[in-house]
Amino acid sequence: MGDDTPGDTPEETPRPAATEAEVEAAWHDTDLAQVLYHDWESGTYDDKWSISFDERCIDFASARFATTLGPAAAAAPKPFGRALEIGAGTGFFSLNLRQAGWLEEVVVTDVSAGMVDVALEHARRLGFPDGEGGVSGQVAGITELPFDDASFDLVLGHAVLHHVPDVEAGLRECLRVLRPGGRFLFAGEPTVVGDRYARALGRATWAVTTRVTHLPPFRERWARSKEELDESSRAAALEAVVDLHTFHPGDLARTALRAGAVDVTTATEELLAAFLGWPVRTFEAAVNPERLGWGWAMFAYRGWQRLGRVDRVLSKVLPQGVFYDVGVTGTRP
Ligand SMILES: C[S@@+](CC[C@H](N)C(=O)[O-])C[C@H]1O[C@@H](n2cnc3c(N)ncnc32)[C@H](O)[C@@H]1O
Asked: pLDDT of the chain along its 333 residues, tens only?
């Protein structure tokens, strides 16, 4: 770790859990909620989202990156030189893209010190050198990036813009640190319509699963403890505070243009795959994880992959707005 790496000072140590008083305060303070919630999640985030750094996630991150690049993919450099990831979490996007050969040098940033620590730990485990030419990390928010003008070839992010209060200001700051002609790319953001059906499916799955697993024939082997369910409910309550936006693809593109970007395009993914993915993820959170083995994981992943292939065909005929995920890319003039 370098001198400016998070985790070296006591106040940056990730918190194992939020107290009820902290959760109460976070209801009225979005910035505090972002840090608290994501620090809290950093230790369990990979399990929650089935994040790994093997072929499965390398392929997933790489396909999502290429889909969002869209027509620009053909002319894109591989690797991009110096890349900055915003809201990197545990490093899912940029570390897997580096493994796929899309990126060379990576700086991972996040408002949560806990997340940056976990991402750097993964980078070390994957054998990436620390610092210049390898992977380094820093605690930073999108609207105040502690980097020089024009110091990156690529600024990227995954599932982060929907947490940012002022998306246009965030994108303007990303353009500032990009060299002229440099590219930004944000993927994995929820669409307005997609978020509606995902939440409805999640709520229905949670209600049915928690009821059924508390019936006598299932209780002992399938139910989660009351404490675990309470913890999930508290997390879900804070989630409602940190999830600030959903996007219409056209509006997201216009926001990027207003921020000063050019050559802006959007791409959307996951319709049928989201219809499977959200109930599956909710079911996994609602039952005793010991009951779900490798067979379940492969069923869920293969099913999701197959439906994703159908979605790619559907994306040629259906409007962008009906899909669950939207990504946006463009360049600095
Ligand atoms: C949903 S997680 C996504 C993490 C990771 N990119 C992934 O796809 O697994 C969103 C991340 O954005 C971070 N975040 C929230 N607000 C932010 C902001 N204003 N600037 C930078 N990061 C932010 C959170 O701390 C969290 O780690």
From this structure: 233 333 333 333 334 456 677 777 777 888 888 888 898 889 889 988 889 999 989 999 999 999 999 999 989 999 999 999 999 999 999 999 999 999 999 999 999 999 999 999 999 999 999 988 899 999 999 999 999 999 999 999 999 999 999 999 999 999 999 999 999 999 999 999 999 999 999 999 999 998 998 898 888 888 888 777 777 777 777 777 899 999 999 999 999 999 999 999 999 999 999 999 999 988 988 888 888 888 888 889 899 999 999 999 999 999 999 999 999 999 999
Dist. CA 273–CA 264, nearest whole Å: 26
Identify whether 216 is part of a domain.
Answer: no
Check pocket membership of 118 for ligand 1, CB cut-off 6 A: no
Residue 154 token pair = 């690529």
Q: Are 72 and 329 in contact (CB under 8 A)?
A: yes
Domain count, the chain: 1
102 inside domain = yes
CA distance 164 to 178: 19
Q: Is 160 in the pocket of ligand 1 (CB under 6 A)?
A: yes
Alpha helices in 145-191 (DSSP H): 167-177
Residue 43 belongs to some domain of the structure: yes
Q: Which domain holds residue 69?
A: 10-191+244-271+320-331
**Residue 290 falls inside a structural domain:** no
Prediction pTM value = 0.90
Residue nearest to atom 16 of ligand 1 (CA): 163
Q: Is the CB of 42 under 6 A from ligand 1?
A: no
Query: Cα of 243 to ligand 1 centre, how many Å?
Result: 10
The minimum-distance atom of ligand 1 relative to the CA of 39 is 25
CATH code, domain carrying 35: 3.40.50.150
Report helix, strand or coil for 189.
strand
In the numeric block, the tokens 């309550």 are attached to 237
For residue 157, the ligand 1 atom closest to its alpha carbon is 6
- Decide: 89 in ligand 1 pocket, CB within 6 A: yes
